[in-house]
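Problem 12. The chain below contains 438 residues. Write out its predicted structure in token notation.
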Amino acid sequence: MALKELFANTSDTDFTINFFMKSRPSPRWALLAAPFFSTIDPIKALTAKGCDVRLIVRFSPITTPEALRAALEEPQVKVRYFTDAKFHTKLYVIDDVALVGSANLTRSGLEANRELSVLLKQDRDEAFYMLPGLFDDLWNDADVLNKEILHEYEKAFRSQEKPQTEDAFENFVHKFVKPAKPTSIVVGSNRKTKERAFIQGFRRKYDELLVPAHNEILEVAQHNGFGRPEYAGQDPQIEMGRFLGWLRLTQGSGNGWRETTLLSDAKERAKRIAKYVDIWQSTDDTVQGDMYHATAEIENISNIRTYLSDPNELTQLSYDEVFRYLSGCHAFIERLRFVSKEIGEDLPGLERLRIDFQEKNTLEAVVRTVNHLLSGPGDAIVRAYDCVYGSYKLNGFGEACVMELLGWGDPQRPPFNNRTIRGIRLLGFNVEHLVAGE
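Solution.
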């Protein structure tokens, strides 16, 4: 059914919701921007047809946590947000058609209000060609929505003190989440703080790329019989970490991990994942050059969660105990290659690493950083920023160490290090550029 030219929510024109419902049978991608968002229906209409969706919204008295949560639960949807009332754009692009006008992504905007939006077509309207670029500018300015940010937003939205006016709500919501403002024509408004730019990049790296890739691999792997008896009854993240590290060491040694073909099709990735799961399930050697077999790996993660993630336990530990529990992170052990050869040449590797780490960091500093990362208040990505670049930074404990430790300590966030990212790349995901330091 052909789309009409005007959408004003009348029978003489068309209802805005039909722009989404009547989209072509197999849309490839959609770019949606609206300050108010309270219904998932238009997005469901697209994802049901296999469409990948990018959505930009504004935190406002109208944008509901329920709609945001439903969008985040859609694997084909990525969501970013602004908090600033200056974000007014209502723009919807689906492949080669676009709708520009006044309608928000609310039931009223899509079906009841007297809105006015016009249809633009790629093969007819010259203005169409500017729209994806305008959307990209907004997308690059916006902050990534994740479950942690959504949790804080929901607290603001549910608060009895919540203001109903937009300007007052903008000030109020900043008590819960940091400001996220679009650039404007005001001189200097395109400048971002170093902190915000880093946090945006971190969220995009982990929450938009690595976490969805990890979750896809785990889901496909479990569907194909993933689960060795050594890991029975354990958190599947432990075996997944071991599996991805084993892939890197045994199937992608040298540059082999980056030389496999990238796969944009999920069905092709599933075939490759199933192939390596089958090898993993039947292999006699799941260690392959690593220090830890299953029993030791399980014990290491248990120690991190028992002692490092509990502030009361953490403050009772000696330096040697803290170091031993941190050594449960493979990224930390890999720091051994940077330890000076002058430090205890005849000593075992872990002892040399301990001496080096202790020379550079006091027990008080290590405890303070670990406590902040694993038990501190607020958004985990912001805490990670503090520990990689901010006032909680340790010497010899960089991004890969921080993000692996955070993942083991936070059940809502998978652990990542350079080895696991290379394993994800070997399975066909375009993540090579996300390896820390490359």
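Discussion. The domain at 6-191 is CATH 3.30.870.10 (Endonuclease; Chain A). Students who got a different answer should revisit the alignment rule from Section 12.3.
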